[in-house]
Design a protein that fits this description.
7-stranded mixed beta sheet; globular; 227 residues; alpha/beta; 7 strands; 11 helices
Length: 227
């Protein structure tokens, strides 16, 4: 890398985080989480947003949600919150958030990031965003290699996410560059099932998710010893 590249300012990003209404969140964890399911969903989203806000490449986080409880908690962390006005599914909600972001900060890159990354590390996110800054559009596949945890578009580039189902294939088909960097496990480890949560636990959960996970009998004493 040249001296000019080293001294050049890093591209800043606005990240869009979609947060489901808690009554419909983390349903695949219902058996394991029981009465703590909604609290777990909120804790995971809050740890994700808090970690993103600590990343020095992130200028702002915009949460798209229609649930007043996560709206209030995530706003208190420093996120901007907008309602899901399209109410037409995940990708339209993300596009809505991106449009709001670009109206406010047109010179930042825009990324859509999963709200399900409770082990997210700001330094790993920074590495990913720096790599994404070199491509018009890019994405990070999830740990399973099927879905997507992060989709990005540089300033002025159309923002066209394709989350849901086999989104890894869908994003590839749309010409997005796939970011498969070493040492970004926390960016790829989304949590939908108990096995996912156990895998995230080995990486080190955020404090809110740790507190709720400690109440889950399925995890036993592992919460206090992992990380």
């Amino acid at each position: 890398m040249s001296t000019a590249e080293l001294s050049a300012p890093r591209l800043q990003w606005s990240l869009i985080v979609p947060v489901k209404v808690l009554a419909r969140a983390k349903t695949r964890l219902s058996a394991a989480a029981g009465p703590h399911r909604e609290a777990l969903a909120l804790a995971v989203a809050a740890d994700t947003v808090a970690a993103a806000l600590r990343c020095d490449r992130v200028q702002s986080v915009i949460v798209v949600t229609d649930d007043p409880l996560p709206a209030a908690e995530l706003a208190a962390l420093g996120a901007a919150v907008v309602p899901d006005e399209p109410d037409a599914g995940l990708n339209p909600a993300l596009v809505h958030g991106a449009q709001r972001s670009r109206a406010i900060a047109p010179h930042t890159g825009v990324g859509a990031i999963s709200a399900d990354l409770p082990a997210l590390r700001p330094d790993e996110l920074a590495r990913v965003l720096d790599a994404a800054a070199r491509l018009p559009v890019a994405f990070v596949p999830d740990a399973a290699g099927v879905g997507t945890t992060l989709y990005t578009a540089r300033p002025g580039v159309p923002f066209s996410p394709a989350f849901g189902g086999d989104s890894r294939t869908a994003h590839r088909a749309r010409g997005a560059g796939e970011l498969l960097l070493d040492g970004i496990d926390s960016v790829r480890r989304d949590v939908d099932t108990l096995d996912d949560l156990k895998a995230a636990l080995t990486l080190g959960l955020g404090p809110r998710t740790t507190a709720v996970a400690a109440r889950l009998p399925a995890l036993g004493d592992s919460v206090g010893t992992a990380g």
